């Protein structure tokens, strides 16, 4: 663990006592109040942060969430809402001794309407399970990410997660039609809606999309699910330069247009590390400086195949694409996606990894990777870039054997200054959480930050919800 949490001064919160624990046991039943073996809830996914919570609560209904928060607010006990704990910015774990409010038991898909495409789901439902239920009636959840087997849909909404389909379906501000959230006071805010169009005053649901558990606990939501595509094809291609990558992206938008559903980039260092670390990964091509994964999803296999094959052969003729493969075979499509999905895990598992998740103008998308490689020199084992090229979202990773203060000083705040100069975003899709809270000002001006603080005070005057995160 990087011992950054040691430096945090505990807020002026009450200390949990036996009476609180008994109160929660009476409310939820003893089985849903945990006081032992709490590591899985205290430690973040990257194992960078370890909190010291003594209590995990697992409510089974919105009313129970409301009753928990009411008690915590009256007693001034701090709370951290937790979904699948796959977040990458330390937002989902306690920093001191906050009570962990786990949404695990609120995991039901309440309805999926195949006519309207609207699904109602509880916040703790695992993304993959939700998607499976949608697929049972020919629909799909318009969100897909590598952590799908453990992240919760409520966690996704609370972080405004992006993932690999934003280029097609946009972000969650468009797909989430409504939310139910419990405020710190215990009030239940019902912002559920079954319609795309609802201009009745302020669009308050958006406050809960991306507010990372600082304004309320999301308990339920409605989501507009598109039809699952009948024909899915994936191209995995090798390219010689970033200039060719950009040309290929422009060509994909122009020529694949309405069927383009993903456009991902992996540089050779990220790619080689994944293949080296996970021997089960199989790549149809190797040996290129850059790789792109381009996916199409449409409704006519013959038409879609023709289009993607034409796109590849045109790119090869122009010398922009050097080699590649196209497949519509579901098993092979999965195999190729696996390479992309395992890239971040290979970096996390192998060594310590500083992670940056930034939005940059496309022309400047990759330059920072080279600059940073130079800055770190041999101190870093890998400085690589990959991510959601189609959304201008770069994942910049710097690996070293252990947390290294020297590298840390070379990369932070440099990465944020660099991003800010290009008017990018210092957090494209992962959020601010604990790890990035000191850098918010690189992407938000002081007046905007003051308004955020005022909003926080209005929703949560005792600041019990997810303290030490997002805002200082
Ligand atoms: P958690 O990690 O448990 O919580 C995240 C934040 O949301 C915390 O601040 C927490 O307090 C809050 N929260 C959780 N549930 C609720 C709730 N019900 N109400 C209020 N607040 C809540 N992210 C992307 O955006 N795109 C990707 O492509 C992507 N790929 C990933 C791949 C891997 C391998 C991993 C490990 C992570 C990836 N992530 C990605 C990051 C992470 O999966 C997402 O941020 C995800 O949305 C977190 O969901 P979760 O349920 O795990 O939330
Ligand atoms: C991805 O796109 C995730 O794979 C994780 O957002 C990125 O770990 C990272 O840097
Ligand atoms: Zn990502």
From TrEMBL:
It comes from the Eukaryota. Gene3D superfamilies: 3.30.465.10, 3.30.70.2190, 3.30.70.2740, Uridine Diphospho-n-acetylenolpyruvylglucosamine Reductase, domain 2, Vanillyl-alcohol Oxidase, Chain A, domain 4. Residues 49-228 form the FAD-binding PCMH-type domain. It is found in: Peroxisome. It catalyses: (R)-malate + A = oxaloacetate + AH2. The keyword tRNA-binding does not apply. PROSITE patterns: FAD_PCMH (PS51387). GO terms for cellular component: mitochondrion; peroxisome. GO terms for molecular function: (R)-2-hydroxyglutarate dehydrogenase activity; FAD binding. Its cofactor is FAD. The keyword Oxidoreductase applies. Keywords: FAD, Flavoprotein, Oxidoreductase, Peroxisome. Pfam families: FAD-oxidase_C, FAD_binding_4. Its EC number is 1.1.99.39. Belongs to the FAD-binding oxidoreductase/transferase type 4 family. Homodimer. Catalyzes the oxidation of D-2-hydroxyglutarate (D-2-HG) to alpha-ketoglutarate. Also catalyzes the oxidation of other D-2-hydroxyacids, such as D-malate (D-MAL) and D-lactate (D-LAC). Exhibits high activities towards D-2-HG and D-MAL but a very weak activity towards D-LAC. This is D-2-hydroxyglutarate dehydrogenase, mitochondrial. It comes from Drosophila grimshawi. The gene is Dgri\GH24571.
């Amino acid at each position: 663990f990087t011992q950054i949490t040691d430096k945090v001064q505990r807020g002026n919160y009450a200390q949990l006592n036996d009476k609180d624990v008994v109160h929660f046991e009476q409310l939820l039943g003893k089985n849903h109040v945990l006081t032992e073996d709490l590591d899985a809830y205290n430690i973040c996914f990257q194992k960078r942060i370890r909190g010291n919570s003594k209590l995990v609560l697992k409510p089974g209904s919105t009313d129970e969430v409301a009753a928990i928060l009411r008690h915590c607010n009256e007693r001034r006990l701090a709370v951290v809402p937790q979904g699948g704990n796959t977040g990458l910015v330390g937002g989902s774990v306690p920093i001191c001794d906050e009570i962990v409010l786990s949404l695990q038991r609120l995991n039901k898909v309440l309805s999926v309407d195949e006519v309207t495409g609207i699904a109602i789901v509880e916040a703790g439902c695992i993304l993959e399970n939700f998607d499976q239920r949608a697929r049972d009636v020919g629909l799909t959840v318009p969100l897909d990410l590598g952590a799908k087997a453990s992240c919760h849909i409520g966690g996704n909404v609370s972080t405004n997660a992006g993932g690999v389909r934003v280029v097609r379906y946009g972000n969650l501000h468009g797909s989430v039609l409504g939310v139910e959230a419990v405020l710190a006071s215990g009030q239940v805010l019902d912002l559920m809606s079954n319609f795309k169009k609802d201009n009745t005053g302020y669009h308050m649901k958006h406050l809960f999309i991306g507010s990372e558990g600082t304004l309320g606990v999301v308990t339920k939501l409605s989501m507009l699910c598109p039809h699952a595509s009948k024909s899915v094809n994936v191209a995995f291609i090798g390219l010689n330069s970033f200039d060719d990558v950009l040309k290929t992206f422009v060509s994909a938008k122009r020529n694949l247009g309405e069927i383009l559903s993903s456009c991902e980039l992996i540089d050779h260092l990220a790619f080689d590390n994944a293949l080296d670390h996970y021997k089960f990964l199989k790549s149809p091509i190797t040996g290129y400086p850059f790789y792109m994964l381009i996916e199409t999803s449409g409704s006519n296999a013959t038409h879609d195949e023709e289009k993607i094959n034409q796109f590849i052969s045109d790119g090869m003729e122009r010398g922009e694409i050097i080699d590649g493969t196209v497949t519509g075979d579901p098993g092979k499509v999965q195999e190729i996606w696996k390479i992309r999905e395992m890239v971040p895990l290979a970096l996390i598992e192998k060594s310590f990894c500083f992670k940056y998740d930034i939005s940059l103008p496309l022309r400047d998308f990759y330059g920072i990777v080279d600059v940073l490689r130079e800055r770190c020199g041999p101190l870093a084992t890998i400085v690589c870039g990959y991510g959601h090229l189609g959304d201008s979202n770069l994942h910049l990773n710097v690996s070293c054997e252990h947390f290294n203060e020297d590298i840390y000083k070379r990369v932070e705040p440099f990465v944020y200054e660099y991003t800010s100069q290009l008017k990018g975003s210092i957090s494209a899709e992962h959020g601010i959480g604990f790890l990035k809270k000191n850098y918010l000002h690189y992407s938000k001006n002081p007046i905007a930050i003051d308004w955020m603080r005022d909003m926080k005070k209005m929703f949560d005057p005792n600041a019990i919800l997810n303290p030490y995160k997002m805002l200082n």
